[in-house]
Fold these 2 entries.
Entry 1:
Amino acid sequence: REYLQNKVLDYRSQYWLLIAAGQTGKSYEVKNLAFLLSQTDDVFPVVYEAKFFKDRNKEINIPFYYSEEHIVFIIDGIDEISGEELRESFYYHISDLKSKYPKLRILMTCRRNYIDNTKFEGFKRLFLNDLSYKEIKEIVNNSDICTPDDFLNNIKDKTLYSIAGNPFFLKAMIRYYKEKNEIQENNVDWKIQPIQKNENGRIFIKKET
């Protein structure tokens, strides 16, 4: 998360594409990134959920009350746009957005199997990879869990490596284990910061006052 935050705050780049397999934490990553960015003095993050893009003729706009150079426009899940024709229209609107607001920073997320290299010119690729067992073990041992070996054995016994390999789910599993001294056997619901969402799928992270 800190790596992504540093990338977005680096004005030498403007456009990023976060690529990962399904259910590996892309949405959790960018929403928490948005929260972190909202705590800075000069960045206004806006999260747009691409699955709500339904009207090919409707322009995608940024908030008019904030100057473009301070906005980070985070577009989550372009693979969730329904149908190729609608997705083509979406790409057109993003290109138009870049032309209209040349100082705007844009971060998009997408599954690996939906990448069309002809559509993402100028976007720097960032990859969200699963943790290896060695990395999982290192994180658990460096946490303040009293019995890290028991925690790792629980993951092994319940065959939860596919979940633990996601750094955000692993963090949630560690938190839950500290509270309950056990590991959930199903997918982990972890807490993210409060956000506000409107009917168009656009999420505004409010700055604290």
Entry 2:
Amino acid sequence: TADAAPRKGQVHAQLQTGLLSRQSVRVDESDVEQRTTAVGPGAGGATLAVGYHLRRTSEVGGRLELAQVTYDDGTTDQRTGHLRAAGYYTHFFPVARDLRATATGLLGLERTNLDGDATARSPFAGVGGGIAWFVTPRTSLNAGLELTHTLGGRHEQDGVQGSSRYAAFQGAVVGGLNVYLGGPKGKGPKPHGRNAPHKRGGKQKGRR
């Protein structure tokens, strides 16, 4: 697609879901230590993101992610859910006319509910890489890998914040749908004939 997005000034909307996820959660000085693998749409969460293209190759934006994971501890199933809000930067690398490789950096905040009994709050950071295939000039499908890790979160039980450190890591294979809106309009053809610039304004100099 010759005029495929992204283009400077465009708004990028993305709906993304995990396809394969590996997650681990640990709270120091407690019995909370969970690991799980999930497969299928929704594994690792669903994400809605909106970004703005500063250049064809540079995008900044924000994203919101919601996920719920079920752990089997050998006795009962425990559910853990998290809500994440993050800012991101993505760089696009042209690969072919309708293909772009992407590299993304994330930084945000996470709130996790541990089976309804406790919560944890933490900043987190992440990186990701993938490929985007433009099926139309303004629509693409993406697939890639994302890795995130918390940065010194704290555990809270019954409304009382404890001294235990909360740590979570997640790796996920993701896929999504992307739509690009707006952007500069293409330049029209130059006028010619009687409307050409050198022919407007009457007779040329030197002629009577």
